[in-house]
């Protein structure tokens, strides 16, 4: 039931073959950005790709206390003051509510299907998708941010770099059209957020949803680490939620336990 | 480098041998308390042991928002609304600051060493240990609780059950003496806390430090689960720390990047 | 963005209110089985429910090396020899491929919908559901086990206890009918497995899918702990997969780095 | 019990201050290597530091199946086929047996203390440290590798880059002397391994033990991700240890349960 196969690496005495390159060469000739990309994607990034890759990887470096990941990691470190479990535990908070470009990616996949199947433009596909979401009462992913109300500068910068480097294609165009259609239909002035922008750029670069989530995890890691180290040095033991209220039953007696307890 | 050995269980078609008993028999004839004990300790609990075991396992069932484990789990669930990662992440907060009877256990080990090596009474060993900790400026484990200021009723109940069942022996006596000596010496009125009481009772039952931590993890699990399920149903996405302040540098320009940025 | 609410517990100086009962009473009068149930379900188990609850909680106590959870935990402990991270990491392997009664639960929900909407019997609903899965080429959950080929005794025992205690109702009947229809249609002789049986019994007791997954996590925990403690004492450092093969590219030169490397 | 403070970042509407720089500037002007360093260290890397930083971050990019982290992550993904829990779970395997430059760092700290306190040379301090370890029967950290028997090319490359860039100082010298003394004393031909080399270089750059562990975690992440994605796509469900043996008791009857079971 095991018998594993991998194309990531092969390790022997004195040699590591990482995706077809010597790890020694990677160590001395590539940046970590390139090495990380190679490890995950199985190829080196193209020249323009490398620049936007750095922008993507830097975009989530830290979002401070306004992040469930950091908050979770701090509480873990406060109970269990060690680096590794707190950082790993913080990563566990990456999911459908945060660090989640995959949902916007799915929307782009749906739009692409419509364009291909019915010969639609990005603008036409956008109308149909927005329709579909609004009539189903579903929240559209990739728009709005609890902190960055009017615009999410990280998204704007990613689009700017993508355009400047000639990377922006149907992904960026489609997401922009989705945003335009959504704004027109709802009147809401929610910005394109970083998850949406990551997904759009990923589409244009041929990255998969999984791969862009992976990059988001790498992006989030250093901030998590920074916060955990801080908590280890200056934090307080036994931190806990202080703004909680109890909404359950008051204390009652346990129902009769057969004359003096069940034992 | 693998080739594992185990005495926990053996699994074949139609049969699971759990520590020398058929899992079928365990399912139909034992309580979970007994089954869990068997899995970890490799033997069935003795009659009196079973009662105190239930008391130990129930003692940490939940400590609400006043627990780093629950707090961490809630934040994880808020970012990643799934049961398993949030519960596992909450467990990661068990460490030297919480759910940690092992530190009191170490103190009891030291006291036992002194008693054996120098023929001391529990009271005499207590004096020496308290001395040792106070003169080294170290906090003594097992005393005091941020919420239960005057007494920790969970500790008191554990000692009461242990005495009533004839389980209390040198472990309970030694820890009580440590507490007496500590109180006399410092004048502080800190109660014996649940971690300390667990360790004392564990000593008298022949459980190891590791085993009592294991029981504490089992004890903590249901409350964690209850909170995570609640967060999944009634929680809010993207919860985060709201009482944080920034103490770092204000924003400066990046130092000159060699005429227009490194790229 | 926080402001938590809970009905699990309220903690004050000298008192823990757990779901409307004093934790002190719980410690001295309830078994852990009851205490854990109370913490998660918010009520005490009924008399018959308590018996099947113990059977459910004991059913997954350990499945030895034939478990992804245990395997994962062992490798973690081999790299990081500590109890807490290895146990928590092992729990992370609970998901759609293992410890996952939720999929069978969904099937039972679908069958119930059919019965209610169209006045079908369990047998009729079973035919339609099996049809639906087979024609969609989907694997039916709750049937078959890689080790327990002909029958899964844990499932059989759970059904036996449920029938004996008068708990078996439409859930058990529906799942039995699903199994009958599946076997008749496919000719495959796969047994009802423990995940399927757990789901069926849960249905009859009014437990939710989430709650039965929670119980499965509690069930799995002691075995995980037993294995991790064993690995900590008798294991080997740096265990790793030994039956892996590399299927990727051989080592090539890095593409020209502009005369002497990018730096 | 909370009231957090941080100097990592401050987040407001439209602005993220990361360690005193605008995240927008970081996204457009820095590599991820620099951004990650800034997040953790609170300052930008110096010019030579950036080069060795990339070498450090690339050194553990992947070690394939010969890694407890990767092995653990694969088993988790096989039970729970999701990216985030498997990757986080893999990280939990970083500990005292792997990805652990901290132990070599401690040795360097001890040697530094000796040099400062007694005016010793690196060679003299090395003799004393090796003495201390050997006479206590302790394994010296930083030497030897189960796969890279004669030399660990990653360590060699790190030292080469450090020397070439003028970074090598007392840390590299001291660790080299420790190795020389160890080899002379024991006759064993174990190479300096990557953990040892990381620690030595970290010392010369003024990085703390914690910071170099943090960098090692970042280094390890992309390979983990690559393996997990592979397992998600081409893996098998329910993988488990296949080379395990049971060494416990054969199945016995449960001891008499008071005439027909305890209930």
UniProtKB/TrEMBL annotation, chains A, B, C, D:
Pathway(s) the chain acts in: Carbohydrate metabolism; tricarboxylic acid cycle
CDD domains: CCL_ACL-C
Key word Magnesium present: no
Protein name (database record): citrate synthase (unknown stereospecificity)
Organism in which the protein naturally occurs: Amycolatopsis acididurans
Source organism, top-level taxon: Bacteria
Entry-linked Gene3D superfamilies: Citrate Synthase, domain 1, Cytochrome P450-Terp, domain 2
InterPro entries: Citrate_synth-like_lrg_a-sub, Citrate_synth-like_sm_a-sub, Citrate_synthase, Citrate_synthase_sf
Family, per entry: Belongs to the citrate synthase family.
Keywords of this entry: Transferase
Enzyme class (EC, first level): transferase
Assigned EC number: 2.3.3.16
A Pfam family reported for this protein in Swiss-Prot or TrEMBL: Citrate_synt
Positions of region (Disordered): 240-263
């Amino acid at each position: 039931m095991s018998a594993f196969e991998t194309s990531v690496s092969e390790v022997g005495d004195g040699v590591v073959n990482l995706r077809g390159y010597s790890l020694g060469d990677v160590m001395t000739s590539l940046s970590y950005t390139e090495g990380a990309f190679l490890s995950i994607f199985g190829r080196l990034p193209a020249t323009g790709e490398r620049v936007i890759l750095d922008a993507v990887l830097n975009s989530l470096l830290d979002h401070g206390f306004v992040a469930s990941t950091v908050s979770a990691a701090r509480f873990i470190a406060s109970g269990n003051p060690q680096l590794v479990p707190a950082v790993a535990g913080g990563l566990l908070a990456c999911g459908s509510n945060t660090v989640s470009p995959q949902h916007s990616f799915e929307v782009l996949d749906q739009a692409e299907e419509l364009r291909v199947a019915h010969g639609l433009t990005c603008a036409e596909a956008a109308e149909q998708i927005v329709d579909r979401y609004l009539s189903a009462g579903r929240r559209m992913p990739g728009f709005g941010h609890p902190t960055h109300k009017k615009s999410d500068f990280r998204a704007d910068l990613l689009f700017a770099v993508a355009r400047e480097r000639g990377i922006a294609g149907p992904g960026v165009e489609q997401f922009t059209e989705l945003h335009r259609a959504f704004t027109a239909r709802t009147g809401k002035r929610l910005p394109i957020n970083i998850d949406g922008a990551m997904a759009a750029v990923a589409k244009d670069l041929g990255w998969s949803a999984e791969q862009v989530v992976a990059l988001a995890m790498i992006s989030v890691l250093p901030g998590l680490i920074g916060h955990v180290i801080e908590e280890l040095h200056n934090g307080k033991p036994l931190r806990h939620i202080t703004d909680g209220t109890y909404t359950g039953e008051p204390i009652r007696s346990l129902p009769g336990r057969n004359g003096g307890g069940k034992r």
